[in-house]
Amino acid sequence: MPRSSMELSDPSDETPLSSGIVPVSRASRVFPHHDTQALTDVRAQFTEAVAAWLAKSNSLDTRSNYGRDLAQFLAFIGIPCESLEGLTTVLPRQVAAWRDSLREQGLTNSSVRRKMTVLRSLFSYLQTYGYTGPNPAHSDFVEAPSVPRDGKTVGLSPQDCRKLLDAPRAGTPAGIRDRAMLAVLAYSACRVGELVRLRVGDYKTTGAHRILEIMGKGGKERRVPLHPEAVERIELWLDASGIRDDPDGAMFRPPKTSRGWGRRGFVSKSITKRSVQLLVERYVRLLRLDPAVTVHSLRVTALTTARERGSDIIDLQDFAGHADPRTTLTYIRNRDRLSQSPAYVLKY
Known about the structure:
Elements: H1 27-30, H2 37-55, H3 60-77, H4 92-104, H5 109-128, H6 158-165, H7 173-188, H8 192-197, E1 203-206, E2 209-215, E3 221-225, H9 228-241, H10 273-287, H11 296-308, H12 313-320, H13 325-329
Antiparallel strand pairs: 1-2, 2-3
């Protein structure tokens, strides 16, 4: 049997495992034949951890796809699905062999990369659950197939995004509305179509969180926690528009007049997608930003920035409302990271 991936830094089979989790390959020596309770407990821990990892996604399809990918990998390396403690024995070379096998079967690079992303996410989650070994699917050990980034939408730097958020005037009803809309787009990564479909009642409080219930593609709903700045701007908009007590009404509406305050100052229907696109283009011109920036750029910016700041791709997938992490990956832009180069931390 292969050596546990938790022991890569020490060739000794007798080295204690700091997590208390024992690889199957050593079970016969660590557990007496008449005492199987410890192994049973470890198995239960891993079963619980994998179930919790799958439960992170609100999408049944996503959970099914990830479960299927994991089952395929386990079958390839010979670990029964009912013996998930065997994950402690996984080595990078086994992940690499699975990758090569998938490519030999004719799967596209994007499909292979997606499956490896799922596996990497699992081991990353197990590490937060108490597993102290290295992630055998990490890119430091196993290189995933390259996938061309097909996304064409221009993203914004955090600095330019800040400028765009602050572009609308805060002293007018339309400006207060625009500031709220831009904050929702930038902090929830919602699509413009999802933005214009929002109802006042979709803005809710859940425990300590303010959330939006966003109806996405295919009628799939997701609950997105809101950044404090987005909450503040929505609150100001609800007060200025006087629509707080209209839960079934449109969240963002076109004004009847440029100076109209309160509900009478706005029509009851929702603002259109085209109107949102035009107002973003207007602010982009005003700020002299890249003319290629569109309303969709805010979605790209949100996902790219969150990824750069450590968000897991699976969490980003749920955040964006994507059915497949491959789609999420096309949104992530490679920014200039020269200032973060390891060269600057070297010292001799």
